[in-house]
Write a structure and sequence with these properties.
alpha/beta; eight-stranded mixed β-sheet; seven-stranded mixed β-sheet
Length: 954
């Protein structure tokens, strides 16, 4: 039924507006075909204007479209009988039916393709692939028709031959979906590639034997491990062995195109097989891991099927570096991490086409269909900040996710790969039990990516011979599936028998392949093809200058003041004729005065100066991404300036000097999870850079919690992967409600251990300047979590002098800024963030000379020595109180409390630690009521200072 129910039809009704003409026309077409298919009101309306000769236009339009594509239909070779005998015959219904049938095969042939090795689910008949559907019959099979735009090397052929070719191309063991691709060039390229080769390539003997050899390796490793470590989890590849020759083919073919690096991401199924048979991990090392002989030298380490690896292999184009990314059990989250790593490598190589660095991501069918990060990563794939020139994606389609195989439970789409259609990526469904078709699909995928620089998907229909893991019994939940699997010969067996039957090799030679591989494993020899045992160091980055350092808080981040002034002047220079928006022009002028020492600096002026010094003075690349980072959520950064005349963009920080390092800011799509994962991958790949991700509001970072938990906080202890990623998280309680107040500081502090990251709450422009510079120039790569401000960006007291930037450093603890008398101080208020200024203003207004206020600017690692020194300044100190804006069960207190008692109780000071001052414990971060917010803020400021609310200055 029509989705719009008309109450009354008149020319003023909104449905009849001009912009709905296409909708009305389609509704009328529907009415002409079946009047009862539209609402009664629409029937009455259309009957007023219907004429007896009205007919649906769709069929006529389709015929004219086919005529346009079939320019050869009127060419008739002498002496032949053809339906295309004259110009008049261009519109012959039979010829049009043939053209429609060809189009149907291209569009719907995948629905008839023999994809499932298990043949568990008979496929429904495809009506538009029948002769009758297009007005044809068996009587037409021997009639010669024009082949139109078919790329089969002849302009005419009998219908029987056309159908045979279409069946071979589109309906055998490869089913291709590409008609959703929006550009005609790509569709014609795909059709030509498929039809010229008749849907497959006749491989020579050597090629076929190499496929068998790789299948032998894939199957042989799994059998070996199953015998040697029966029942031990390894998430084997059994049932999907064609994956190994496929990825090997992609790597070798990419090398022939000149690719120098291939970066691979995958979950755990088949990972050990890939490590040993493709990347070249020594089998003896893997066996030692199974035997428990390998223990982490430091940190926690991780299970063997999560670990990454790197190696070099020889390809037709020379040596190529392979890198397998580390991945937790969170499956698809590795995809954006890999994209970030690839982008970093491409930037390092100045690879603007994406041909020098290739991303390959391997997915599982259930995760690919079910996890939202897949959609986010696809949406990033062609954007300015995140494109990598296309990714070859392989779905190892086991047709079951853990114990879920019913399609009505697993997804709402026909294929698990349908989400890829959102970016118009071609999808190659292929039967995993036909290795030659799999290799053809691998070649096609790589060639498409090389030609168009876009994603493409290989949907490898296979099965899982064991359960979810080797200790799991799958027949309890999939009895019919596993009854078939138990009787099914392996992919290698099927292919080997085919080669023997065709005389490619003998049964004895086939057995020899198995024996030789098993003997190589027994000897602990490398079994990967083309492995380079002495790899060229030119293909990867040397991280050694950034490793094995103790984490130091103090670091010299000074820069000559005249240089700072010069940077300020340079950033204020605009291209000739550049006209800025009025408020932006004012920002530029004010910032020039600040950055040349004429006025105190605000946050934005200090932050941009930090970037200028890093890219020019320290030759360090700076990359900033996140939602609205060019301007900044709160209009403080303005790193991107726009010409009001033509809309062009100018980035002053990218034009500091001719030989400066790269500076780039990118406004991201509205994603936290995939974008943060991308930047993690970027930061773990390029050490000499400052990589920053900024949240629009710090509250939104919890949309990327998996990235924080599984990578940022624990990547070093699990995988020894260091990362210098900086996260700017706007945080502060300013009456904006539960979702615009808290970056969840407590969650980051709970994750802190083993010097794994740094958590800071800077409160002055000089502090953020030195924190950013320290993060860049210090040869230590640890994540930096910044609780960045909102209202402090323009607070009258939150300013710094240029001299503080030129000569200072980041201070982990800031002492009281006023000239207090240490002998008079009996109460020490410790705090961090915005609340400091509220406390300071009230103390000054009330003249509370017995109260000192100190800021802990770095919460982790906790600067114990500086805290002790602060306490020891005040000989008559009686009370120490921690004051925070967050609710008691949130913020820093639960992290600080045991540390404070550990530090203070044994100390000779007579001071006692008072109960903390905070908002009442709450399930939400903040109230949505402005009135309650103000009452709570007044109460905690008064509580921090040790007075009543009534005593606060008005």
């Amino acid at each position: 039924m029509n989705s719009i129910t008309k109450q009354a039809v008149n020319v003023d009704h909104t449905e009849l507006a001009a912009d709905n003409a296409h909708y009305i026309e389609s509704l009328y077409e529907q009415f002409l075909s079946d009047p009862d298919s539209v609402d009664a009101d629409w029937q009455d309306y259309f009957k007023q204007y219907q004429s007896p000769n009205d007919a649906p236009h769709n069929a006529i339009q389709d015929q004219f479209l086919l005529l346009a594509r079939n320019q050869t239909a009127n060419k008739v070779p002498t002496g032949t009988t053809s339906t295309s005998g004259s110009t008049a015959n261009c519109a012959d219904p039979k010829q049009m039916g043939v053209q429609q049938l060809i189009s149907a095969y291209r569009r719907r042939g995948h629905r008839r393709a023999q994809l499932d090795p298990l043949q568990l689910h008979p496929r429904a008949a495809v009506e538009d692939l029948t002769l009758a559907y297009h007005g044809l019959s068996d009587a037409d099979l021997d009639t010669v028709y024009s082949t139109g735009d078919l790329s089969i090397g002849k302009s005419e052929a009998p219908l029987r031959e056309i159908i045979e070719i279409m069946e071979r191309v589109y309906c055998r063991h490869i089913g291709i979906e590409y008609m959703h691709v929006t550009t005609s060039t790509e569709k014609r390229w795909m059709e030509k590639y498929l039809e010229t080769n008749h849907g497959h390539i006749e491989f020579d003997k050597d090629k076929r034997l190499s496929i068998l050899e790789r299948l032998t390796a894939a199957e042989g490793l799994e059998k070996y491990l199953a015998r040697k470590y029966t029942g031990v989890k390894r998430f084997g590849l059994e049932g999907g062995e064609s994956f190994i020759p496929a990825i090997n083919e992609i790597i070798q073919r990419a090398g022939g195109y000149g690719t120098k690096e291939v970066v691979i991401g995958m979950a755990h199924r088949g990972r050990l097989n890939l490590l040993v048979n493709v990347l070249g991990k020594n089998p003896a090392d893997l066996f030692d891991e199974f035997d428990g002989k390998v223990q982490p030298e430091k940190g926690s380490g991780d299970v063997k099927y999560h670990n990454g690896f790197s190696s070099n292999v020889m390809t037709p184009g020379g040596e190529t570096h392979l890198a397998l990314g580390f991945n937790p059990s969170h499956l698809e989250i590795v995809s954006p991490v890999i994209q970030g790593s690839v982008r970093a490598r491409q930037v390092r190589r100045n690879d603007t086409t994406g041909n020098l660095v290739l991303p390959i991501v391997i997915h599982g069918d259930a995760a690919f269909a079910g996890q939202g990060v897949v959609q986010e990563t696809f949406q990033m794939s062609q954007t300015r900040a995140y494109t990598t020139g296309g990714t070859v994606r392989i779905v190892i389609n086991n047709q079951v996710g853990f114990t879920t195989s019913r399609q009505e439970d697993a997804r709402s789409t026909e294929y698990c790969t349908d989400v890829a259609k959102m970016v118009h990526a071609p999808i190659l469904h292929v039967n995993g039990d036909d290795p030659e078709s799999v290799i053809f699909a691998a070649q096609l995928a790589l060639d498409y990516r090389h030609e168009f620089g876009k994603d493409i998907i290989i949907d490898l229909f296979c099965y899982r011979r064991n359960g979810h893991n080797e200790a799991d019994e799958p027949s309890a939940t999939q009895p019919l599936m596993y009854a078939v699997i138990k009787k099914l010969p392996t992919t290698r067996t099927i292919y080997a028998q085919k080669l023997i039957a065709e005389g490619v090799l003998t049964a004895e030679e086939e057995t020899k392949y198995e024996d030789e591989y098993r003997e190589s494993l027994d000897r602990g020899e490398y079994v990967a093809n083309s492995l380079v045992l002495e790899p060229s160091s030119d293909l990867f980055v040397d991280w050694s200058p950034y490793l094995n350092h103790d984490l130091q808080d103090d670091w010299d981040t000074s820069v000559d003041i005249e240089k700072l002034k010069a940077y300020g002047r340079r950033m204020a220079e605009m291209p000739e004729g550049y006209k800025l928006q009025r408020q932006v022009q004012k920002v530029v002028e004010q910032r020039l005065a600040m950055q040349t020492g004429e006025e105190p600096l605000n946050w934005g002026a200090a932050e941009t100066l930090a970037y200028a010094t890093l890219v020019d003075n320290d030759d360090l690349m700076v990359r900033i991404t996140g939602e609205d980072v060019g301007r900044g959520t709160f209009s403080h950064r303005h790193s991107e300036l726009f010409n009001m005349e033509d809309g062009s963009m100018y980035v002053p920080l990218a034009h500091i000097s001719e030989d400066q390092a790269r500076f780039a800011t990118y406004n991201s799509l509205l994603s936290e999870e995939a974008v943060l994962a991308f930047e993690y991958g970027y930061a773990t790949t390029v050490p000499n850079a400052l990589i920053i991700w900024e949240a629009q509001f710090g509250d939104f970072v919890n949309g990327a919690q998996v990235v924080i938990d599984q990578f940022i906080a624990s990547g070093e202890t699990k995988w020894q992967r260091v990362c210098g990623l900086t996260m700017l998280l706007p945080h502060g309680f300013e009456g904006q409600g539960p979702e615009h107040s808290s970056a969840r500081l407590e969650r980051f502090l709970q994750l802190c251990a083993e010097d794994n990251m740094q958590v800071i709450t800077p409160t002055t422009p000089a502090q953020i300047y030195h924190a950013l510079r320290r993060q860049g120039v210090r040869p230590i790569r640890k994540p930096l979590i910044v609780m960045s401000p909102k209202s402090l960006l323009r607070h009258k007291l939150a300013t710094s002098q240029l001299e503080e930037l030129a000569t200072g450093k980041f201070e982990t603890v800031l002492s009281d800024v006023d000239n207090v008398n240490p002998e008079q101080i009996t109460r020490l208020v410790l705090c961090g963030g915005k609340v400091y200024y509220d406390l300071l203003e009230q103390r000054r207004a009330l003249g509370l000379d017995h109260v000192a206020i100190a800021r802990i600017e770095q919460l982790y690692p906790l600067p114990e020595e500086r805290l002790v020194a602060e306490i020891e300044k005040y000989s008559n100190l009686a009370e120490i109180v921690w004051t925070q804006e967050e609710p008691l069960n949130q913020g820093a207190w639960y992290y600080l409390a045991p540390e404070m008692y550990r530090i203070v109780v044994p100390h000779p000071t007579k001071a006692r630690i008072l109960d903390p001052v905070a908002r009442p414990a709450s399930a939400a971060p903040a109230t949505g009521s402005a009135k309650i917010h103000l009452q709570q803020q007044q109460a905690l400021v008064a509580g921090g200072l040790g007075i009543s609310v009534d005593e606060l200055a008005k």
